[in-house]
User: Which sequence fits this backbone?
């Protein structure tokens, strides 16, 4: 066995131990799931379409909770590294595992696994709730809306894509927190990147709105949830998720480089 | 035997003071000597000024096919009304000169219309009136768009109205006009004073309103008019999709009889398409004699223009959202960093009265946020408005007083948000959680209510009434006019609460959070 896999395996074990023994990790994962499902359910229950020809997208409505759940995922991701900087633990970590890139990679793997696991639960529960609630409101195939079953291609893509979306948000947040070394600043930057693009594009409007929605990590990334009106989207579903992946990669790259170059 | 004398040591340094002024100075020193926080404050100012500069539309350009309908291309030009507001003044006017004293009385027996739902071809026309299709009698300073006027009118679905000088609107008799249920309208002129009356039978009259048109010339055009604003439909407005469709509309009205009394020297009607002829799908816009009366067909509107999109003040100040996040980070860390470093213990030993310490922090961080945001918001207007004009965009005028309220209000909004962040930081003691909490209570309600727009309108409005996001109402620069159909959404700069009421809601949240923080600070160990 070569040295690197052992180092990586040990790093993974260390990061997993740190993550699972923190009380906050479990609570934040639970909060992410609960908030996602709760908001999805409330919005699905609030959407009504008396006339029966609204331009609503059932998959998108059922997954509205992602808009809030991602904020909790971002906190979890930021605290993965930000928490170590605030307590000074990072020095112990880097003394024990001097390969800094390995440490970051291990953190990314552990974090992504946890978020994807929680994401699967949150997204499946949201789709199920939407399926049950929206049918009661007349937003179902019988009224000309696309089916909300996982057997349909677009819905399956929206479901899997939403889980991947949460994973990429976690990586983006981890990268940002590694770069700025402070939880509060990092969470502010990440939430700003997520929510400011849609707000500013709505207020400014015009042709600029479309461009902002194409480059915003959330506006582009959540194009993956669309199952109707694909032609009028600012960006295609997978291309949009690609934009978010580029943001996450850039953040991780910047974080990784700064981690290697700077003193902890 | 003499008793030994003990002298207690006293420092030669003068005794320190622990007044509020010393606390303020201590907190101000902390704030200005942390480089990251100063950078954060500067970034907040730059974002507040800079984000609005991103807009680069040109007048007359249309929004993208999937852009929300509230963002139709910016206007190139608009006439201004007597009050200085932007107005639409485009209608068909059948008039003759009226002297200083006189009156016009008409019976309106029918009001019908048609509209073009999506295009401009005559085949697409559908019959039907718009809610604010209007026709009736009008006395106007001149036929120049934007000039002063007073009118009595019947409308599509808002009954009889008296309107004058674009922004004034008074309701008269209700119900729709038909041959079975006609309406009688009368306008009288006595110098600058115009009075409007309505009646169901032509004998029993009731006064609707009195308009004083200061400086009305002695001879003015007066007569009959018809106008009908564009039909507009919003199909969807949610994030990433949404479209609006619309088209011109037309109203035709029959007056019979038309009775003139007083100084009408010409005795002959002239037809004028005020504000230029409206083209589009309508072959017949104008008037014809019919029996003892006249039939008039017109399109357009006589009304104030709702300010939306580029050229409006709220658009220019959109950077406040970004500045807010930077300020929230600094303000929350202003207290949470003390907990992280243990500095809070030194602070509380030096100043054991804990609530006073928090009050000093609130004053310092609130003032710093205000001091950074005020010039930033002012600079945004100062830089952006000339840039918009240079691109040919019409900049919606606001009064100086409103401009001061919006600019100072934006700075105050950011200052209070900073105090809220400080208070939540003291309650939660962890920077990341506090920053998320503040963004969750200020930015997220706005996000869920406005760009996401999945919630029904009523629920979205309540989010902007009861959450701290209500504070953004202080940025509303233009009134919403009930007599003009438009999408008065927060994204376009129109909020469900009046400006100061919304700001008060934010202040109440900040005060409550500060109270809770002071209570917990006294109760808990540091």
Assistant:
């Amino acid at each position: 066995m070569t040295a690197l896999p052992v180092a990586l395996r040990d790093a993974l074990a260390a990061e997993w131990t740190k993550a699972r023994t923190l009380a906050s990790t479990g609570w934040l994962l639970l909060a992410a799931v609960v908030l996602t499902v709760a908001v999805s359910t409330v919005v699905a229950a609030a959407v009504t379409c008396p006339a029966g020809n609204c331009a609503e997208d059932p998959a998108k409505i059922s997954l509205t909770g992602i808009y809030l759940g991602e904020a909790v995922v971002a906190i979890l991701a930021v605290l993965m590294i930000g928490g170590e900087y605030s307590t000074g633990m990072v020095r112990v970590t880097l003394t024990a595992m001097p390969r800094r890139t390995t440490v970051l990679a291990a953190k990314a793997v552990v974090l992504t696994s946890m978020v994807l696991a929680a994401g699967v639960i949150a997204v499946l529960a949201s789709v199920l709730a939407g399926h049950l609630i929206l049918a009661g409101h007349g937003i179902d195939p019988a009224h000309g809306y696309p089916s909300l079953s996982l057997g349909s291609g677009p819905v399956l893509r929206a479901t899997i894509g939403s889980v991947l979306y949460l994973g990429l948000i976690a990586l983006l947040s981890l990268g940002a927190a590694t770069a700025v070394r402070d939880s509060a600043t990092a969470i502010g930057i990440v939430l700003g990147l997520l929510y400011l693009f849609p707000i500013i594009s709505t207020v400014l409007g015009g042709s600029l709105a479309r461009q902002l929605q194409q480059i915003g990590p959330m506006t582009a990334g959540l194009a993956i949830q669309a199952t109707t009106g694909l032609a009028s989207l600012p960006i295609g579903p997978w291309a949009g998720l690609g934009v978010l992946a580029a943001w996450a990669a850039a953040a991780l790259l910047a974080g990784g480089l700064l981690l290697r170059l700077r003193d902890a | 035997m003499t008793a030994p004398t003990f002298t207690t040591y006293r420092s030669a340094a003068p005794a320190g003071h622990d007044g509020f002024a010393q606390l303020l100075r201590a907190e101000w020193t902390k704030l200005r000597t942390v480089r990251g926080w100063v950078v954060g404050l500067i970034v907040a100012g730059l974002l507040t000024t800079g984000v609005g500069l991103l807009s680069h539309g040109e007048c007359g350009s249309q929004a993208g096919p999937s852009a929300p309908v509230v963002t139709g291309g910016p206007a190139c030009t608009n006439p201004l009304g007597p009050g200085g507001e932007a107005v639409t003044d485009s209608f068909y006017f059948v008039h003759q000169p009226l002297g200083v004293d006189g009156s016009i009385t008409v019976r309106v027996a029918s009001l019908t219309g048609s509209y073009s739902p999506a295009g401009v071809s005559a085949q697409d026309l559908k019959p039907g009136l718009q809610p604010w299709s209007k026709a009736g009698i009008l006395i106007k300073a001149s036929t120049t768009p934007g000039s002063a006027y007073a009118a009595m009118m019947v409308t599509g679905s808002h009954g009889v109205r008296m309107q004058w000088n674009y922004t004034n609107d008074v309701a008269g008799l209700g119900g729709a006009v038909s041959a079975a249920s006609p309406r009688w309208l009368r306008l009288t002129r006595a110098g600058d004073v115009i009075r409007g009356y309505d009646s169901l039978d032509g004998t029993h009259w009731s006064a609707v309103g009195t308009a004083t048109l200061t400086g009305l010339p002695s001879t003015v055009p007066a007569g009959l008019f018809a106008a009908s604003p564009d039909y507009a439909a919003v199909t969807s407005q949610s994030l990433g999709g949404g479209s609006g469709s619309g088209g011109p509309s037309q109203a035709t009205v029959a007056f019979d009889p038309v009775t003139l009394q007083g100084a009408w020297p010409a005795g002959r009607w002239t037809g004028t398409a005020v504000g230029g002829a409206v083209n589009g799908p309508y072959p017949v816009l104008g008037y014809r004699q019919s029996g003892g009366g006249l039939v008039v067909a017109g399109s357009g509107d006589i009304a104030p223009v709702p300010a939306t999109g580029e050229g409006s003040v709220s658009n220019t100040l959109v950077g406040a959202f970004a500045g807010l996040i930077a300020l929230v980070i600094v303000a929350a860390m202003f207290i949470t960093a003390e907990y992280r470093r243990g500095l809070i213990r030194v602070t509380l030993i030096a100043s054991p009265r804990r609530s006073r310490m928090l009050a000093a922090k609130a004053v310092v961080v609130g003032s710093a946020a205000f001091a950074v945001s005020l010039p930033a918001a002012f600079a945004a207007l100062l830089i952006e408005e000339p840039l918009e004009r240079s691109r040919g965009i019409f900049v919606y005028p606001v009064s100086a007083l409103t401009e001061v309220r919006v600019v100072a209000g934006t700075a105050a909004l950011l200052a209070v948000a900073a105090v809220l962040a400080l208070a939540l930081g003291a309650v939660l003691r962890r920077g990341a959680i506090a920053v998320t909490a503040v963004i969750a209570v200020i930015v997220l309600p706005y996000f869920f209510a406005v760009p996401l727009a999945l919630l029904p309108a009523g629920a979205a409005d309540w989010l902007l009434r009861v959450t701290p996001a209500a504070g953004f109402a202080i940025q509303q620069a233009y009134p919403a006019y009930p007599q003009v159909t438009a999408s008065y959404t927060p994204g376009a700069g129109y909020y469900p609460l009046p400006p100061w009421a919304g700001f008060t809601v934010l202040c109440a949240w900040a005060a409550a959070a500060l109270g809770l923080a002071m209570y917990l600070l006294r109760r808990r160990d540091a």
About this structure: Chain B touches chain A through 64 residues (CB under 8 Å). The mean pLDDT of chain B is 86. Residues 354-390 of chain B form the longest helix (37 residues). DSSP finds ten helices and 18 strands in chain B.
